[in-house]
Structure formats: structure tokens, C-alpha cells
Design goal:
With 156 residues, this protein is mainly α. The chain has helices at residues 9-17, 65-78, 82-91, 97-108, 113-134, 140-149, and strands at residues 24-28, 35-39, 58-60. Helix content is 49%, strand content 8%.
Amino acid sequence: MLELSRLDVDEIANALADQTDYDHQWLIDPETGELAFWTSDTGIDGENPVDIDDLDLVPIEALPSYIWYQDMADFADGIGNEGAARRLARALDGKGAFRRFKRELYEEYPGLVASWHAFRDTRAQRRAVEWLAGEKLIDKDVAAQFFDENPDPDLP
């Protein structure tokens, strides 16, 4: 088992959120917790192609976008400013919701940006720890303690 305190939870969270289109894969070394970025063209060292199945690393599959979308919906639903909540919720309707939400938030409600970042980052970190526990890379009791110590932040 890896020690949670020695892992870069933010980097694992970023790997879980990576929705880019090109052929690549984030991987974690189950012995050290070190992350690697693999592409079919350049392997993990950036120069030598290698078959991903030949690596003794655990793939980090990106979570579906609806999970990250739900964070935006929960944030909009949880803020106390009813006008901002309505406008942010409206921005989430239809295609392009991520872009519209960010534009609405940053341009119209810059005072909420820090709260959004704290909320989004806490959720992402919790998902990373949940993923690590699910892969049996960290102890489930350590994960439970992390969840207890890192609840969703209060929203304004």
C-alpha cells in the first residue's frame, strides 16, 4: 500500500479529469505512487514507443464528464445568491455547458471564483482518494479519514 501523504493527490485528480482527445494514458506506479504520461508515439519517456501492456503500471482512466458537470450543478444549487444560482444553472443547459458556466462565473460573479475553485478542487481530491482506495493502492481507512478531514467547503 502507498502512503497517501506521499502522493500528489492533485495530479491524480487532474489525470482523472483529463478529457483530451488524443491517444494517451495517465498511469501510476503501484510501488512508488509516481505518475507517468504515456502516448502511443512516445511511450512514457517521451522518446521510445512502448506497448502500454508491457508496463507494470496502473492506468488512470478519466472519469466521465457528467461527474465534473455535477460539481458545477451542485455549486450553482448550493450558493446563497439566488440570482447567481439561477444564471449559473441556466448556463449549464445544453451543449457547451462547461464553457458557458466558466464564462458566466468569471465575468459576472468574480467574487464566487475562489469559492468555486475550493469546491471543485476538494471534490476532485476526494475523487482521487476514492479512486486510489478503489484500486487498493491506499488503505480504505486512510481514505475514510481523508474524507472526514476534507468535506465539501461551505458555499457563500
